[in-house]
Amino acid sequence: MKPATVEELIESNLEDAEATVTHARDKHDEDHLAATVVSPAFEGLPLVQQHQQVYDALDEHMTTDIHALELSTYTPAEYDDLEADQ
């Protein structure tokens, strides 16, 4: 599955999400992807529940089209802090 398609799925199925999806580094398989997702929907949720929201947004694609997904999730405030530190 193309990274841009995965971005569209996440952004259309997760509240106010901004997703950046690329092929995972050091992987030679096009089905290994890496995603950074920023959404206010993650506010107050533990990491496991944040990741579950992304998996839910991708629905059956997680079992049929995407072999592996390296996932980083942030609230907008967390992402702004991360960007400020760099």
Automatic annotation (TrEMBL):
It holds the Pfam family BolA. PANTHER family: BOLA TRANSCRIPTION REGULATOR, BOLA-LIKE PROTEIN 1. Belongs to the BolA/IbaG family. This is BolA family transcriptional regulator. It comes from Natrinema hispanicum.
